[in-house]
Amino acid sequence: MQVFTKTVVAWDGSPHAEAALRWAAARGGDEVLELVHVIPGEDQASEYLRATGELSEQRVALMDRAEALRAEHPGRTITTHTVHGRPEKELGGRMGHDVLVAVGTSSHGRETAWTLGARLAAHRSRGSVAVIPADWEATARRNIVVGVDGSVESMAAVRVGVEEARRTGDELELVHSWVVPTSWNSAYVEYLGDVQLMEDMRRDVLDEALDYARSLGGAPAGRLEQGGAAPILAERSRTANLVIVGSHATGGMARFLLGSVSHDLLLEAVGPVIVVSDNE
């Protein structure tokens, strides 16, 4: 079961882009690795040449980086593209069910909630986006964590998690979080019974995801947590090699206004995160 056949990396020579590239290359495998440098604005000549007919500096830098990468990973198919336009449009156009697009975190910090990774996760195309912090290599990391909630989207995340664990040899952990509704204000004994019933129901959701992962050949552990999903998964990202979640965005403005666990996680995580929209 190979989920992705190509990884597209947004590259512009910045430390953030380099971090995403190193992460994508380190995943190994025989996926095509495509480096895309998106230059903002309209092309004044062509995507490759200056008006003088010489290769642009951006194109030369991209080609040089690809050559160095081929030397580090002989036999790996590595392609390059230099294009002009908006990054979310150009990269979003390359998304697909078997394509992973990898980007670095914003070089501008958290002054905006709509980082490139968040915009791509909200893109109308079906595909998966990996957002890689610049310092992801600075911390010892040990496992792959998948957030599950019983939805079709989270099952797609489970599929990706099983494949990533198989690829890396890391342990796979499925995490389901839940909260007690704030409107519950019944008598103490009744309240305890209601909470226990909800916990049992939530454990059933986790068990279903575990069974599904095992049916794909995975060997997952399960973890039931009480609390908000985004904060819990963000905390797990401190030590996890990778955190994977499904996107519940549906299209149009609803997709753009992501406002979901996946969006919040992208802003809070300190380790690599993959948001899966669809991989079938």
Automatic annotation (TrEMBL):
Every UspA domain range: 5-90, 141-276
The family this protein is said to belong to: Belongs to the universal stress protein A family.
Protein name stated in the entry: Universal stress protein
Species annotation: Agromyces indicus
Lineage: Bacteria, Bacillati, Actinomycetota, Actinomycetes, Micrococcales
